[in-house]
Write a structure and sequence with these properties.
Number of helices: 13
Structural class: alpha+beta
Order of helices and strands: HHHHHEHHEHEHEEEEEEHEHHH
Shape: elongated
Oligomer: single chain
Radius of gyration: 28 Å
Helix content: 40-55%
Number of strands: 10
Strand content: 15-25%
Number of domains: 3
């Protein structure tokens, strides 16, 4: 009967082939030649993921050289089909101006026990080796995996999502559309909250909102760099840049107003507005800051606090092509510009955009 299956494939009579294989699977489910034709049937039916699974299983289980050769050829055809599809998407991207704007593809954390299978899928979808794919999958926090044309990243993102790999993508224009206010102090804490702040044109004013409008808190540490003199391995003096301390930031997201309230420890005026803790001469900025965060937590008990900024930043500090296209909206004095500032601005904005979709 296997000869009839082969004849049906030659004639491209796949309906007959499917009926014959259904019967053969009942009689000889472990027959490798039958399995090979099952893989081919999946392949011609467009079920490439199932076909790939069958071919790879045959490579592991079969000792027949002809079966192994045919399985390898099947995998090659599947890879060629993927390459052609990628090329078609890229061509479509170039022809549609809306798909050409710069976007980012973000990978979300995945459990360690799922990484091996997910890495194989990632490698297959994006055309990279499995080892590199596994290293790219984050266990904690987000990872900026790739930037490029929106249409291309959307194509990859949909394939990854359909394969069970958590991710999302967004154009950078969405990030830059969010208005960021620099908070000076809270003037009133009640059902209605009044905050004194600066807009992006550095105009001072006030904003009134309700606690129920806040959907997320984003906290992060931005390093303070100082140039120091130290001894090198040969005992000679050398100048180098070291992290001396950190600025503490907290963003409050208010999507109904398309804005972020940005607070940071050295910029908040603790001696004005609502007192979040007794003001004494012993109070340091750190004490006041921790009291402010604790107070916000009591007012926003159900709001998620995002605090995995540092691992995200470490994956994108060298992504200068992306960072150059966004505004950090970080108002701290630095002798030299730092990619950490824009990384935090992007991190918070991505959380804002993603949360607004869900």
């Amino acid at each position: 009967m296997i000869d009839k299956v082969a004849s049906a494939f030659e004639k491209k009579d796949y309906r007959t082939a499917a009926n014959l294989l259904k019967q053969l699977l009942k009689e000889s489910p472990d027959n490798h030649q039958v399995q090979l034709y099952v893989g081919k049937l999946h392949e011609v039916s467009g079920k490439h993921e199932k076909a790939e699974k069958v071919y790879r299983q045959l490579l592991r289980d079969s000792n027949n050289n002809k079966i192994i050769t045919q399985a390898r050829l099947g995998l090659q055809r599947l890879e060629q089909a993927k390459t052609q599809l990628r090329q078609q998407v890229i061509a479509q991207t170039k022809s549609n101006p809306e798909n050409q704007e710069t976007a980012v593809l973000i990978l979300e954390p995945i459990a360690s026990e799922l990484k091996q299978e997910a890495a194989q899928k990632l490698a297959s979808i994006l055309g990279v080796d499995a080892y590199s794919a596994r290293l790219s999958l984050p266990s904690r926090g987000w990872r900026l995996y790739r930037s490029g044309a929106l249409g291309e990243l959307k194509f990859y993102g949909e394939q990854l999502s359909n394969s069970g790999i958590p991710c999302f993508w967004t154009p950078l224009t969405k990030v830059n559309e969010i208005e960021v206010f620099q908070v000076h102090y809270f003037k009133e804490f009640a059902t209605k909250v009044t905050v004194v702040c600066e807009n992006q044109d550095k105009q001072l004013g006030s904003l009134v909102f309700e606690w129920s409008e806040v959907t997320a808190q984003v906290q992060g540490l931005l390093p303070i760099f100082e140039e120091v003199v130290d001894l090198n391995a040969r005992g000679k003096l050398q100048r180098k840049t070291q992290t001396q301390d950190y600025f503490h930031f907290c963003d409050l997201h208010i999507p109904v107003r398309n804005c972020i309230l940005r607070i940071y420890d050295n910029g908040y005026k603790f001696n004005k507005g609502v007192a979040v803790s007794p003001q004494t001469s012993q109070n340091t900025i750190r004490i006041n800051w921790n009291n402010l965060l604790n107070y916000l937590k009591t007012k926003l008990p159900q709001v998620k606090i995002w605090s995995d900024f540092t691992p995200f930043a470490e994956t994108m500090l060298d992504q200068t092509d992306v960072l150059h296209q966004i505004e950090s909206h970080i108002q701290i004095f630095r002798r030299e510009k730092s990619s950490w500032d824009k990384a935090f601005g992007l991190y918070s904005s991505l959380i804002f955009v993603k949360g607004n979709r869900e």
